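Quick note —
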Amino acid sequence: MINVSTFGPEGGNVLYKALSHPLAVGPLEALQESLKGQPVAVYDPDHYFETFIGLYPDFEITTFLTHQTEKLGQPAPFGKTWQALLDLPDCKEKHVLVLSFEKAKMQHRLSDLLGDRQLYTLEPARLPEKFLQEGLFYLDKCNFATNFAFFRDNDQFSTRLTTANYWSNYAAHNVTYWFQLFGEAGQVLAQWEEPVETAGASVIVDSRAICRRFGLSSFTGQLFVHVIGARGHDVVKYALDTIGHNGNPSLSVTHDANAWPSDRFGSLPAPAEDETLLVWLQNSHGVAIPAGSLAFRVMGTDDERIYDHEMNPYETVALDLGKLFPDVRWPAQFEMRAGKYLVRPRYEISEGRRTRIAHLNVMRADLRPDEALSHLHPSLGRGILLPFPILPPEHFETFLQPNPMSETVETLPLRVDLFDHQGQAMGSHFLGNLKRNHKGAVAIHDLVAEAGHGELVYDFREGGIADGWLHAMMRYHNRCSDHKAETSFGGHIFNTLMTWRNEPQSYSGPAPGLTTRLFLKLGLVDEGRQLRTFCQLIYPCSGEKRPPSVTVLYLYAKDGSYVTEKTVSIKASGSMIIYPDAVFSEEELKQAGQEGHIIIRDLTCRLFGYHGVENEEGGFSLDHMFGF
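Predicted structure written out below.
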C-alpha cells in the first residue's frame, strides 16, 4: 500500500494533491534522482514527511531534524531518532531537504546552521503562478480543485464530460479548466486550457473533438482536470457519458471519480454467465504500482486473487476479472484492495455488443459498526435510507443488490420500502439480517405493479449492527431492447429538521440539508440519432411526511444565460420522471442549445435524483445526479 493520507473525517489532505499533481511529479522525481545514493538530512517543519515519502520513496534519509523539543530523542521514521534542528552544524550530511514549498523562508531560518551544506526544498514542485489565487496560502484547498475522469475514444466508443461553472455560485471569477490527457501507457497525449468566462456556463469535453484538435487516433486513458480559480470547495463534479458508435448500441453514464484514492473499493458485481467484466485499473500517481499491490476477493471471504503485474505511472489497464475468478457469477460481488493507488475505478460489463459502465465506491476504513443506529431519536423516523428508481415493471426489470461498504461491517439488517410516484406505499419487504458474504439481489419488479421508487433502510428486527455507510447497486434491464444500466450510491437521512451527527446532509452548508441544487444536461443529436435526456427526482422522507415540494427547473444556455423556468411539485415520499422536451417548448430548448443545461432548485426540501439519456432503439443510461 502507498502510505499516504488522502481523505478522512476532517476532509481532504491538500498536501497529497500538491505532491501528486502531474506538474509536481517531474521536479520531485528530478530531485530524487539528483540525490540518489546521497545521505540526506530532513527537516519537516509542517509534518509533511509521511505523505512525501509515500509518493517519493527513494530518498536516502539518514537524519531527522525537528524544532519541537518534546520530540527530541523520540523514535523517528526508518528506525532513527529525532534530533534538534540546532544540531544541524554537527550533522555529517552535506544535503539538507526541508519539506516546505517556501525556499526563501527556509533559507533565512537556517542560514546560521547550514554552513557549506546544500539546501533543497519542495519549491521546484510548486505549481505555476497562474494556478494560484491571490490571497490564498499555497496549500489552500481551492488551489487544488482537481479530479480524474476515465476517457476513451475509438471506432466503437466516445466519451463526453459535462459540467457547469458552478464555482460562480461561490463568487469565483475568471475560472479556467486545465486538462491533461494520459494515454493507455501513461504518456501525455494532450494538454490544454478552457477559460470559462461567464457565470453558470456549461463546460463540455468531447473525446471526438479532442481527437480532431490534437490529431489523435484512438486512445483509452484518463483525463486529469484542474479548475483554476475555484472557490467554496475543491470538489470537481461532472457527468461522463459513454456513447456507442458505428452500430454499437451502448450508452452509459457515470459521475465524478471521487478525487481521493482509497485502500479498498466495493459495489463491484460479478459477471453473469454470458457477460465479460473488465475493471479499468488507472494509476493515479507518478509512481509505479508494484506487482501484487492490487487484489480482488469475493466479498466477505478470504478468496483473494492478486493482479501480479507492475503498472507504470498513469497507466491504464483493462483487467478481465472473470479470468481471475472463472467460477464466480452474479449475484456474487467483489471487493478490491487498491492500496491507495487508484481513484474510484470504473468497471465495464459487456454482453454481446452492448456494454455498460459504472463505478466502484469507496470502502470506509474509519467506520465501525455502531449500536446507536438501532435506536435513533424518534424525530429521525426511519433514519438512514437509500432512495432508488423503480422503472415501469411491464417494460423493465429492477434489481437491488445491497453492498457492504466499510471494512469491518459484518451484518446488513435491511428492509426495502416501496412507493408509487404519488408517495403512496406499495409495500414493505424485510430482506433479513444479511451477512457480509451474502450473494443475492432483490427482484424489485416482482414486488410492485407500477413504477415509483424504493428506499433501502435498516431494520433490526432480527438483530445485527450497522455502520451507517448504507450502500447498494441498482441494475435495470429493458425487457424489449435487452439493454441494461446500473448505478450505486449510499444512504442518508432525508428531510428532517432534527439532526444526527452531520445528517441530513446538504449540497452546501451544514445539516439539516433542506434544499436542492441538481445539474441536468440536455439531450443531443449524435450521428443523426436523438439522445433524449431524462431524470427521476425523488422526495425521500426519513421522518414524518412534509408538504409537497416547490421545485424550479431553470433552463440555461451554454454561456450560462437564463432562458426560462418551470415549476413542478412532487409529493413527499413521491417521485417524478422529467423529460426536458416535455417541460420546455421546442423554441426554448432551441434557444438553450444542445450544450445548455438545467439547474433543479428547491428551497423547501432535499430531493435526490437519477439522470440518463435514452435513444430510439431502447438503449438508456442511468446514474445518480450531482449537486453543488
